[in-house]
Design goal:
Blueprint lengths: L12 H6 L5 H10 L8 H8 L8 H4 L10 H6 L32 E5 L2 E4 L27 H13 L5 E4 L9 H12 L6 E5 L2 H4 L6 H8 L5 E5 L9 H12 L4 E7 L7 H13 L2 E8 L13 H11 L10 E6 L4 E4 L2 H4 L1
Bound molecules: iron/sulfur cluster (SF4).
Iron/sulfur cluster binds next to loops.
Length: 348
Amino acid sequence: MIFSPNNQSWTDWTWQHANGCKDLTTLNGWLRDRGQSSGFDESSFLELTSNYRMGITPYYFNLISTFDETDPVYRQIVPSAAELVILPEELEDPIGDEDPARGSRPLKALIHRYPNRVLLMPTAQCAVYCRFCFRKRLVGNPAHNAREDDLQAAYDYIQNHNEIEEVILTGGDPLTLGDKSIQNILKALESVKHLRLIRIHTRLPVVNPFRLTVELGHIIASLGKPVWISSHFNHPIEITATAKRQIQGWVNLGIPFLNQSVLLAGVNDTSQILKELLMSLIEIKVKPYYLHQADMVQGTSHLRVPVERGLNLLKELQGELPGYALPHYVLDRPGGLGKIPLQNQYTI
Ligand code: SF4
């Protein structure tokens, strides 16, 4: 039975990664073990996932308690028929990663949107495929994985641009790579004198926290430049005893954590849930950084919360939380125009 945490391989991150749910047969099998069914027939499921695949780790699936779209984990990860609704204002590339007018993606593996920082994308692979992802157009597609020469071109670019102070590893999820690959990337960045900071954006602490191994923690902690981890917890139920323990292990090594959440309808759009999420993050020494207004990505209208409601939620949270537990509520403007803080509209 795959869903027993007593399964000897359960705590092995590579086992979790290799045994994810990627097709309808597996999904129905996992649901059948719980006395449930997805309700999809093969052709409607194929239509739904032909443009954007499904991926769920056994660990993350195990956090589902109600097997329908009212469950905050199920809603984030199991495809929904609502994804077939595409509004005219929704975009394939909602934040303008690829916008040639801005020259923001000069290389396959690198996006340069802000003068002093770049995104480095070593892989398009993720551990799970979040239904709200703003990079749906490329994640999960091996054609977007960086090859060694793509990475070398990115290192040369960073080396030749003295204004770059921070590199953000993203993708895809960089922590799906093996230790050696991650170490090689970090070492290449460490050798760039003018680079001051490295950040790793990852959902692994949420969906496969066993990836936070002692070995990888030591590789990161021993680097000659500071490496910040930016995790992606959206709901307090995701902060399990396992996630807490694994993060604690890296925090004890001196690795600092931030968290970015996305405001999602039916997942975390109440002040009670957000308060619990933010307090729980602070308790495990993870600083809430951003609460993102969900991007205008195609097929995600059922998950978006109106900005006005988001602002009201933030107002309700003020006074309920210490100031350092409040994230910035931000919107990534279409066309690569960058983030704007939304809560300034009521704090000024
Ligand atoms: S882990 Fe991040 S990049 Fe990957 S699908 Fe989820 S939101 Fe998108």
